Amino acid sequence: MASFKNSPAWQALEAHHSKTSGVHMRDLFAEDETRFDQFSLRQGGLLLDYSKNRISPETMDLLVDLARAADVEGWRDRMFAGEPVNTTEDRAALHVALRLPLDGEDTAAAPQGVWGPIIAMRNKMRAVSDAVRSGGWTGVTGKPIETVVHIGTGGSHLGPEMVCQSQGFVKPSGPEMIFISNVDGVQIFDALGGLAPETTLFIVASKTFTTEETITNARTARVWLVEALGEGALNKHFIAVSENAEAVAEFGIPADNAFDLWDWVGGRYSMWSAIGLPIAIALGMDRFEDMLAGAHDMDRHFQSAPLNANMPVILGLIGLWNIDFLGAEGLAILPYDEGLRGLPNYLRQLEMESNGKALDRQGDPVEAGTAAVVFGDPGTRGQHAFYQALHQGRQLITCDFIAPMESRHAIGSHHDRLLANYFAQTEALMRGRGPEEADAVMSARNVPESLRDRQRPHRVFEGNRPTNSILLDRVDPFTLGQLIALYEHKVFVQAVLWDINPFDQWGVEWGKELAAQILETLRNGGHDIDVSSSSQGLIDHYKTHKAQKTKKTP
Ligand code: F6P
Question: Which of 180, 233, 348, 406 could be cross-linked to 474 through a Cys-Cys bond (beta carbons 3.0 to 4.6 Å apart)?
Fold first, then answer.
């Protein structure tokens, strides 16, 4: 692809930016009272307000021109058609096929060969989740399952945990769900501590079934179970979700308990597959199907809405404008919903593992972009942690504020108070506050005159900090499916604009390879490896400490 920064569309945006860079959103709103109507979109149970961005109708027209010039629509259609859009691995990326309705006319849209396996997977998920929830699935001593322990990491963990948390699943309505995702033994020790092996079911979720953290945890869980119930217990207490059937069988999990995964499903796009089994067990398969339906609703919107009224396209373009023209370095995901406390970390992997790249599809350096640093915490908690930097920091950090209009637990004035903060923060970040307002605040608070000159500059807020606001009717499986699919397609749109491949993750390999070499020297003494004096010094310090500790321990 020709260098996109030399393209007429990009050049037009450069010119537009130099003409408009001094504009303050406060003035844009004062000049035009229809900004909310102009720059907001609705789809199903989701409203996106992107008017608190430094944009004008001309900005949006130029951004849409850029999307057209980059052939976003062509790449989108190729992805949905199952073409190898994962160019470095020559694979399709067909997470959208996973959420096609079983009985809808859309099934014809499923590219060749994928629909049969998907139906088989969905039917098996329903059978297993129904059996576990009904008590039909019993452990080796005949007792029903009370706790499901999901072992996985990254895309094989974050989605299921986030969705289960968001629906506030509680024990009486289904088994207790526990998620283990770190090789740090503290996590599995704490998790298994209070569990009864007879009523515990393990799900080992790993597309490759070689991820060291996951397999180490699975082995520890197996020892814990076998010590209590014997070798034969695996058949009733272990399920696997993986593309690697051979490794699953070698681990000792029978084929009947194994769910397939496929190379056309990327890890961070996989919760719509059997990786989502914990969701189906916690909430019931019907609710899991609702989530798929929400994502499918967003898929159809992405496929059919015109670019200038297409939510994923708009969100992707706004993100590019903020990063490449306004210099934004961070993106804060701020769910004003305690149930969505897992959403920032989920979207962090989706955005940063997909688009945290410096090479384009041809292997040449990318000249602009790419993914911002994604972080976040639920409101209102984050307000007491990092909002100082959002309002008055030197780095421009843009924010996506997300809230449900209905709370899962409407208690007294809590939800109004939560939403009052949600509405206030985007207004404050946009509008800022001048010295006169700062003086008014100081006099209202009887700040001593002697301090007012000193405090005044610090009480002034420049504002003009871009934010997106997303309002959901409620956080139910359908709207959550819409929301996640929205971000999946936003990330895809940005990858097309930056001409990068969002479906591979070569960057995670080198650390893993070095860790394997260092583990060798930690476990077996072994040859010293070729590392810097710093790493060698640290390793030696650890080995010495460990040796001394072992000597002292009787
Ligand atoms: O972080 C690298 C990665 O490959 C992710 O893309 C993936 O979701 C995670 O590790 C887990 O991989 P697996 O499902 O193969 O265990």
Answer: 406
- The rounded Å distance from CA 20 to ligand 1 centre is 43
Of the pLDDT bands very low, low, confident and very high (cuts 50, 70, 90), residue 1 is very low
Measuring CA to CA, which residue among 451, 333, 347, 355 is closest to residue 403? Answer: 333
For residue 338, what are its two tokens? 């305690």
Instruction: Provide CB contacts within 8 A for 397, sequence distance 6+.
Output: 328, 329, 330, 331, 332, 389, 390, 465
Name which of 345, 201, 344, 212 is nearest 281 in CA terms: 201
- Among 119-133, 430-444, 523-537, the minimum mean pLDDT is found in 523-537
Supply 94's token pair.
């067909």
Beta-bridged to residue 200, according to DSSP, are 147
Which tokens belong to 334?
A: 């701020």
Q: In a mutational test of the pocket of ligand 1, which residue from 210, 211, 508 has the highest number of ligand atoms less than 8 Å from its CB? A: 211
Question: Which residues have a catalytic role annotated?
Answer: 353, 384, 512
Using a 10 angstrom Cβ sphere, with 0-12 exposed, 13-18 middle and 19 or more buried, the burial of residue 380 is: middle
3-state secondary structure of 42: strand
Q: What is the pLDDT of residue 233?
A: 96
| C-alpha triplet 203, 207, 211: angle, nearest 5° | 85
Give the Å distance between the CA of 434 and the centre of ligand 1.
48
Mean pLDDT for 106-122 is: 83
The overall average pLDDT reported for the chain is: 94
pLDDT-based confidence at residue 3 (cuts at 50, 70, 90): confident
Pocket test for ligand 1, best of 150, 157, 505, 509 (most atoms within 8 A of CB): 505
Contacts of 524 (CB under 8 A, 6+ apart): none
Distance of alpha carbon 243 from alpha carbon 262, whole angstroms:
6
Test site for ligand 1: of 95, 203, 207, most ligand atoms within 8 A of the Cβ: 207
Q: What is the pLDDT of residues 267-285, one digit of tens each?
A: 999 999 999 999 999 999 9
Residue 227 Cα to ligand 1 midpoint, Å, equals 29
Reading the block at residue 139, the tokens are 């452990």
Q: Confirm or reject: Cβ of 155 under 6 Å from ligand 1.
A: yes
* Cα first-last separation, the chain: 66
pLDDT value, residue 527: 60
226, 229, 232, 236: CA torsion to nearest 10: -100
| Distance (Å) from CA 350 to ligand 1 centroid | 12
**Total-model pTM:** 0.96
**Does ligand 1 lie within 6 Å of residue 398's CB atom?**
no
Is any atom of ligand 1 closer than 6 Å to the C-beta of 154? yes
Q: Which atom of ligand 1 is nearest to the CA of 211?
A: 16
214 C-beta closer than 6 A to ligand 1? yes
Q: Does an H or E element contain 92, and which?
A: none
Q: Is 211 in the pocket of ligand 1 (CB under 6 A)?
A: yes
How far, in Å, CA of 420 to CA of 416, rounded? 6
508 lines ligand 1 (CB under 6 A): yes
